[in-house]
Design goal:
mainly alpha, 21 helices
Length: about 475
């Protein structure tokens, strides 16, 4: 009998294992049990996790727009998470922290950047107010979710972005996943007619709970696509044509999302772009904004009387839909948003320092509604979203420092974005940085009217865009992106 070599023995074990897997999986499939079909995917993910963490990150980013809530698969659960991204993100977070400690690859430039310090402050305060929360279990879940979103989409992203090519791949893979969702949504919407505004609300299911979140994400990527398009030097190339059609595609999807807040945020982003191009000083801009706020407060009665004359409700007619933005008399969506803000402010007045606890607003706001402010879509169960503001919501949930800590993230990011633009302007990297900053600005504006950072869909571009600006602020000049 000829003895087997070591390599032959290894091959024999592989063949036996593969045969065993096929037999067992065949028996399970015959009995309509499909769980083992996931094994090759799980093994691939584990391989990526240990050998190429940056590739795993990009896989997660691609899957983020395509993720679906667990509640859509198993209705009635008391807990919910987005599959497959949140479990993958949690695993990537654990592995990333382990690698930082084991391989001693902590980069002090990233962790001590002003934006990172603001993020640490925000996380610490969310944890403190989770401990003091009126609903500790709810707040702890909120804190853990925020922690893995920030760790994965910001800190892990920042480490991946130290390889310049990964910055471009981040945008491309998210856009690839988002494009699939847009195609699905438009096909779904077209069954009822694209001019059917009501159909836009449900056409995004199950990928998005709300068409406004869908519109907010598209708005963030439109400036980035414009940056790719107009920064390419090869005029008339197939590559440039592809970005042009992608811009048209996103614009078409944006229009038929019927997301008024998204349209406003894009218009605001364009104004910010003009201010940067005109080299308006930040302190002058702050003074003008301060004066406008003061004048608005002084003439608030006249402004309210003028706004109350607008009775145009949201409509399938785009012109009428735009006009309905300022309707605070009869438009249920606008009135309900005001109702949520007023409720949040009343909650803040009762607990101004520590708030009621992160993530608790939707469970506790009902008694703070006034009957005169409730609308036909008001509810006492918090099943139509939360405070509808990234700035007012934290006031109710984490007190005054909750909002201040988030504002510090916004302010430090704005300074970093402007600084990166001045460092790198005239280069392809600088153009992409500007597109990233304007895209992020659209969410800063959108955040006044909605809040989606408790979802993976918005968290990936929000924290990812910030990570791009931080890395370019630190390494931009020495690691310039290639124009391709």
């Amino acid at each position: 009998m000829i003895p087997l070599s070591e390599s032959s023995k290894n091959n024999l074990w592989i063949y036996l294992a593969a045969t065993l897997f096929v037999v067992i999986n065949g028996l399970l499939v015959y009995n309509e049990v499909y769980i083992l079909n996931l094994l090759p995917f799980v093994l691939l993910i584990l391989l990526l996790a240990f050998l190429a963490l940056d590739k795993l990150f990009l896989v997660i980013v691609f899957l983020t727009p395509l993720s679906v809530p667990l509640a859509e698969i198993i209705p009635g659960l008391s807990v919910n998470l987005y599959l497959p991204t949140e479990p993958l993100l949690f695993g990537a977070m654990i592995l990333f922290v382990f690698k930082l400690g084991y391989e001693k690859q902590i980069d002090p430039k990233i962790f001590t950047h002003p934006v990172s310090l603001a993020i640490f402050f925000n996380l610490i305060w969310i944890f403190i107010t989770s401990v003091t929360s009126t609903l500790p279990v709810v707040s702890l879940k909120f804190f853990i979710a925020r922690l893995w979103f920030v760790t994965g989409y910001f800190f892990l992203a920042a480490y991946c972005f130290k390889k310049p090519e990964n910055i471009k791949w981040f945008f491309k893979v998210y856009l690839a996943g988002l494009s699939l969702v847009i195609i699905y949504t438009l096909i779904n919407h077209s069954r009822f007619g694209l001019i059917n505004q009501e159909a836009a609300h449900s056409a995004v299911h199950p990928f998005y709970n709300d068409h406004t979140a869908y519109g907010a994400v598209i708005a963030m990527f439109i400036p980035v696509v414009i940056a790719f398009l107009f920064s390419l030097s090869r005029k008339g190339s197939v590559y440039k044509i592809q970005w042009f059609f992608l811009l048209l595609f996103l614009s078409f999807a944006m229009i038929f999302s019927y997301t008024r807040a998204g349209w406003i945020s894009l218009a605001g982003g364009f104004v910010v772009y003009l201010l940067i191009k005109l080299k308006v000083r930040f302190y002058l801009l702050a003074m003008v904004i301060g004066m406008l706020i003061a004048m608005g407060y002084m003439f608030r009665t006249n402004i309210m009387m003028e706004l109350e004359q607008n009775r145009q409700d949201s409509s399938a007619d785009l012109a009428e839909h735009v006009q309905s933005i300022s309707n605070i008399t009869s438009d249920a969506s606008n009135l309900e948003r005001i109702n949520r803000w007023e409720s949040a402010l009343r909650m803040f007045k009762q607990k101004p320092l520590l708030g009621w606890g992160p993530g608790t607003y939707m469970f506790l706001y009902a008694p703070f509604q006034h009957s005169t402010e409730k609308t036909i879509i008001s509810t006492n169960f918090g099943d139509f979203g939360n405070a509808h503001s990234e700035y007012i919501g934290p006031l109710a949930e984490s007190g005054v420092l909750g909002t201040i800590s988030f504002l510090l993230i916004v302010i430090t990011t704005i300074f970093a974005g402007i600084r990166v633009w001045h460092k790198l302007k005239g280069t392809w990297t600088g153009s992409l940085a500007l597109g990233t900053f304007i895209g992020l600005t659209t969410y800063f504006i959108h955040g006044m009217m909605n809040n989606f950072l408790d979802t993976d869909k918005a968290s990936a571009p929000f924290w990812g865009f910030i990570a791009v600006l931080v890395v370019l602020d630190i390494y931009g000049k020495e690691r310039n992106l290639v124009n391709k």
